Amino acid sequence: MTQPIPTTLFEAAGGTATFERIIDNFYNRVQLDAILRPMYQADLSESKRTMTLFLIQYWGGPGTYSQERGHPRLRMRHAPFSIGQVERDAWMSCMTAAVQDEKLAPEIQDALLKYFEQAASFMMNR
Ligand code: HEM
């Protein structure tokens, strides 16, 4: 029986489980990062859940993020946090390591990291 061809990066990457693992890994690294940790709440569980839902929706999975939180408006939601080059690079190094640990197909890893590079720069607000 032939496997259905994945139509979204969400499916091609392995669905919800893959994004949950990447974001778990990312926040385990944020936990240890002296620059990023103070910017987040004490309990990271809601941050993990929100970020996972956002990426699942962005890459073509279910739209639960927007059903619960409306339009992402990411730049506006990051306005309360001072994000310069140092914070951007710290965020990117945590996310790059988390994505690379997943050992995804090169074209999927490249697509994710290219998006994060651009999005992380877009979040800079000083
Ligand atoms: C560039 C460096 C970045 C820093 C320092 C940063 C930091 C933060 C902080 C402190 C929060 C609030 C805590 C929370 O509610 O989780 C947050 C929320 C969030 N961030 Fe970032 N972030 C960065 C980049 C990004 C990027 C590139 C994305 C998307 C690809 C992203 C997606 C999100 C999402 C989805 C939320 C939750 C928004 C909501 O409340 O619905 N962030 N971020």
* N-end to C-end Cα span: 54 Å
Structure classification: mainly alpha
Instruction: Name the shape in a single word.
Output: globular
Which fold does the CATH topology refer to? Answer: Globin-like
Strand element count: 0
Give the SSE string. Answer: HHHHHHH
Q: List segments where confidence is low: pLDDT < 50 over at least 5 consecutive residues.
A: none
Count the DSSP helices: 7
Average pLDDT level: 96
Query: What integer value in Å does the Rg equal?
Result: 15 Å
Q: What ligands does this structure carry?
A: protoporphyrin IX containing FE
CATH superfamily: Globins
Features of the shown structure:
Globin-like, single chain, 126 residues, binds protoporphyrin IX containing FE
Write the layout of secondary structure elements.
Blueprint lengths: L8 H4 L3 H16 L13 H14 L5 H6 L4 H5 L6 H17 L4 H17 L4
Could you walk me through the main structural features you see in this protein, from its secondary elements to its overall organization?
This protein has 126 residues and is an all-alpha fold. The chain has one domain (12-122): Globin-like (Orthogonal Bundle). Helix content is 63%, strand content 0%. The protein has seven helices and no strands. α2 packs across α3, α2 (16-31) crosses α6 and α6 (85-101) packs antiparallel against α7 (106-122). The radius of gyration is 15 Å and the shape is globular. The chain starts with 8 loop residues before the first helix and ends with a helix. The mean pLDDT is 96. Protoporphyrin IX containing FE (HEM) binds next to α3, α5, α6 and α7.
